From TrEMBL:
This is F-box domain-containing protein. It comes from Rhizophagus irregularis (strain DAOM 197198w) (Glomus intraradices). SUPFAM superfamilies: RNI-like. The lineage of its organism: Eukaryota, Fungi, Fungi incertae sedis, Mucoromycota, Glomeromycotina. It comes from the Eukaryota.
Length: 493
């Protein structure tokens, strides 16, 4: 491994970008690995799962770029951290940096001084260093910003190439006007709404000047708004003007909005639609939402009927269907809606790969589920939810019979692409049925199975699972808490 060339190492480290533990361990292999990895780590040094409030060395590295006069001034202020020179660093770290995260930089500054005045002074100096040393900026998280960094002499050159911006609505509108003058090619914009007032007109202006906005995310961070305040309307109307470029939309609203029902049908190029509530749209409005390029769709299961309508109008490219909520109690017309939904999936989504599916364990539902398995040949991950158990158990079968029937359907009709099954709620399988299922799965790729039922921790089940792990039938078999199983499937893409 130590003899791999630099290009190969770049590819490997690129695949490990979200695995901070592996990346930091790789730094210690040898000097060549370290020299290869440092530029990757410092491209966006704020993305890793580490405690930035307790990293003195980051404060020392950034202050090393300050002028001697400023360092001397910091010493007079009583800042006790060692202030080294830039020339003594092993690498020119900031020359690799392509991102600024205001919140994390402020937390690093707080390790140097707790004084408000000192902190504000250090912020100004640190931002100036980033403007001078970073060749370009691709990513900016400006939440908690307290300085107009867009007026630094070097700002125009740095921010012209800005690709991704994260911000919140509490930031003064003038900051966005400053950014709008120089950053007009932002492709990914994420906004956290954390104030109870009308739309931030600076954000509206920033959206309007963008020439290639592709990804837009809005997340409400407050639960109650004044009845006479609409924080969405101006933002959504600005967004409609970008309908030719927007292809990823994520909207998490805390209350219904009538403007969205007018906007959604106009965003016809969406590849990703993540939205938690369609209750403000009637059936006629939903039928106007035609997304022929839709690949990822996430919705609350309470709007299963709405999901069926949108899926019917999609272009057959849907790969991931995800859920905001898995609490399925008290859903009106659950049996009918789940039958229709299952049918719409296999009629309109032959390329589906990730699918949570809820249904009653009736013969009709099981029959439609088997039809889906036969048609959808690309399925990789299934999350299965059986509801209305008490009614079916009383009238037809017991819990084990239902589970055993389900295993028979899976082994008989599941596509060879299936790699993962998540069983949610009251699934139970007899030892004999599970053993038969695993024996018949032998000629397929290894399968991961997840459940919340602790029954499978019993010795006879554990021995069966170990046996089939050893012969390659099972890749993983885990009994997990409910929330852990949800997280396996619910990660946004």
């Amino acid at each position: 491994m130590s003899k791999l060339n630099k290009d190969i190492l770049f590819l490997i480290f690129g695949e490990l970008q979200d695995n901070s533990k592996s990346l930091f361990s790789s730094l210690m292999v040898n000097r060549f690995w370290c020299e290869t990895l440092i530029p990757i780590l410092w491209r966006n040094p704020w993305r890793y799962d580490i405690n930035y409030n307790n990293k003195d060395y980051l404060f020392i590295i950034i202050t090393s770029y300050l002028s001697d006069d400023i360092k001397e001034f910091l010493t007079r202020l009583g800042i006790q951290k060692p202030l080294v020179s830039y020339q003594s660093l092993l690498f020119d770290y900031l020359s690799f940096c392509r991102s600024v995260d205001i919140t994390i930089i402020n937390s690093i500054i707080s390790t140097g001084s707790s004084s408000t005045n000192h902190r504000l002074f250090l912020q100004q100096e640190f931002y100036g260093v980033f403007m001078k040393k970073c060749p370009e900026l691709k990513y900016l998280d400006m939440k908690s910003i307290e300085h107009q960094i867009f007026y630094f002499p070097e700002a125009k050159l740095r921010f012209e190439s800005l690709y991704e911006l994260k911000c919140d609505t509490s930031i003064d509108f003038s900051y966005f006007y400053g950014l709008a003058r120089i950053s007009q090619y932002i492709q990914k914009l994420t906004i956290v709404n954390n104030i109870d007032k009308e739309a931030n007109l600076g954000i509206v202006k920033l959206i309007e000047v963008q020439k290639n906005l592709k990804y837009f995310e809005w997340k409400d961070d407050r639960y109650y708004y004044s009845s006479n305040v609409d924080p969405y309307k101006e933002i959504l109307l600005a967004l409609v003007k970008k309908a030719d470029t927007i292809n990823h939309l994520k909207m998490i609203f805390m209350h219904n909005d009538r403007t969205l029902q007018k906007v959604l049908p106009k965003l016809r190029k969406l590849k990703t639609l993540i939205i938690d509530d369609f209750s403000y749209c009637n059936e006629q409005q939903l039928k106007m939402c035609v997304y022929h390029d839709l690949e990822i769709f996430k919705i609350d299961y309470y709007d299963l009927k709405a999901a069926s309508i949108i899926i019917e109008n999609s272009g057959g490219r849907l790969k991931k269907f995800l859920l905001v909520s898995y609490e399925l109690d008290f859903i009106d017309n659950f049996n009918d809606d789940t039958l229709v939904f299952t049918r719409k999936i296999y009629e309109n989504c032959p390329s589906i790969e990730y699918l949570p599916l809820a249904f009653s364990p009736s013969e009709r539902h099981f029959s439609e589920f088997e039809n889906l398995l036969k048609v959808c040949k690309n399925l990789k991950s299934l999350l299965l939810i059986v509801c209305d158990m008490e009614k079916v158990i009383t009238e037809e079968k017991n819990l084990l019979e239902i589970g055993d029937d389900l295993l028979k359907i899976l082994v008989r009709s599941a596509p060879t692409s299936l790699r993962e099954i998540i069983f949610l709620y009251d699934y139970k399988f007899s030892f004999e049925a599970l053993e038969e299922f695993l024996e018949k799965w032998r000629d397929r790729p290894a399968l991961s199975i997840f459940t919340i039922d602790p029954t499978y921790n019993a010795d006879n089940y554990k021995n069966l699972i170990i046996k089939h792990k050893n012969n390659g039938v099972i890749k993983d078999f885990r009994c997990e808490f409910f929330i852990n199983l949800i997280n396996i499937m619910s990660v946004d893409s």
